[in-house]
Design brief:
Helix content: 25-40%
Organism: Bdellovibrio bacteriovorus
Order of helices and strands: EEEHEHEHHEEHEEEEEHHEEHHHH
CATH architecture of the largest domain: Alpha-Beta Complex
Protein name: Glucose-1-phosphate thymidylyltransferase
CATH topology of the largest domain: Spore Coat Polysaccharide Biosynthesis Protein SpsA, Chain A
Mean pLDDT: 94
Low-confidence stretches: none
Radius of gyration: 19 Å
Largest sheet: 8 strands, mixed
Number of strands: 14
Number of helices: 11
Distance between the termini: 33 Å
GO molecular function: glucose-1-phosphate thymidylyltransferase activity; metal ion binding
InterPro entries: G1P_thy_trans_s, NTP_transferase_dom, Nucleotide-diphossugar_trans
Shape: globular
CATH class of the largest domain: Alpha Beta
Strand content: 15-25%
Family: Belongs to the glucose-1-phosphate thymidylyltransferase family.
Number of domains: 2
């Protein structure tokens, strides 16, 4: 399984914050936003990751994350000249995907909680269980009209219908920005026609699997938080949520060095070396505490 993070777009809803720096480099409490989706891929065991961003922002991401070796992953970059729709990530990443399955996560989507559902979905996807070549996730929301909505059979986990921002939703289950597809996804994405918005649509790509009976759905159960950060209010809410969790538990969310160590991507000696190079700050102190406890 390979991973793609789509971190492009104009971030116009966050203007003027995004006038000089992309949305995915804005802070969510004590870390850049990009740390959160990257940590999800790492916690899913994915180590070969492509980050797609804009020409102006690519050097900033490279300065922040490098080649990913300090986190025990292989991180590469691709430029999206302008936002032409989410499916373009699979066109730009065609050579990167090759013959492998791929997970796409949007750079402004945050998930917190037990990720066992995600790990199981990755196993199912790579094994192509039940003939499913594509998988979406279902998250219960009070008002799903602002999202893509999935209706599905809870026993077979097969999708009945998918609608984009329906006026009368058939279910309360929204599709968050996390998708699993097989290696045919690039060819499918190339075949899509732009919508009236002038972009290709992720719903049309998902439907290409559904229409062939090859789309499955995985439940995100209660206790898992899914946070979007597209507006100033959503960004504030996400920061407040992360801050409350970290202050209450004394453990950081999406600390990439810790995730790399817990996932055994790096060892304790490598963690010590990385930590020693950090400036004096609470982030370094947290990693020093982990090292002390482990030793």
């Amino acid at each position: 399984m390979k991973g793609i993070i789509l971190a492009g777009g104009a971030g116009s809803r966050l203007y003027p914050m995004t006038r000089v720096m992309t949305k995915q480099l804005q802070s969510v409490y004590d870390k850049p936003m990009i740390y959160y989706p990257l940590s999800i891929l790492m916690l899913g065991g994915i180590r070969d990751i492509l980050l797609i961003t804009t020409p102006d922002d690519k050097p900033l991401f490279e300065k922040l994350l490098g080649d990913g070796s300090q986190f025990g992953v292989r991180l590469s970059y691709k430029i999206q000249e302008k936002p032409n729709g989410l499916p373009e990530a699979f066109v730009l990443g065609e050579d990167f995907i090759g013959d492998d399955s791929v997970c796409l996560i949007l750079g402004d989507n945050l998930f917190y909680g037990d990720l066992d559902f995600f790990r199981k979905a990755i196993v199912s996807q790579t094994a192509k269980e039940n003939g499913m070549s594509g998988r979406v996730f279902a998250y219960y929301v009070a008002d799903p009209r602002a999202y893509g909505v999935v209706e599905f059979n809870k026993e077979t986990k097969k999708v009945k219908s998918i609608e984009e921002k329906p006026a009368n939703p058939k279910s309360n289950y929204a599709i968050p920005g996390l998708y699993l597809f097989d290696s045919t996804v690039s060819q499918r994405a190339k075949a899509l026609k732009p919508s009236p918005r002038g972009e290709t649509e992720i719903v049309d790509l998902i439907l290409s699997y559904h229409n062939e009976g090859k789309l499955g759905v995985e439940m995100m159960y209660r206790g898992l938080a899914w946070l979007d950060t597209g507006t100033p209010r959503q960004l504030l809410d996400a920061a407040s949520f992360i801050g409350a969790i970290e202050e209450r538990q004394g453990m950081k969310v999406a600390c990439l060095e810790e995730v790399a160590y817990r996932m055994k991507f790096i060892n304790i000696a490598e963690l010590e070396k990385i930590t020693a190079q950090l400036p004096k700050c609470s982030y370094r102190s947290y990693l020093e505490k982990i090292i002390l406890e482990e030793k």
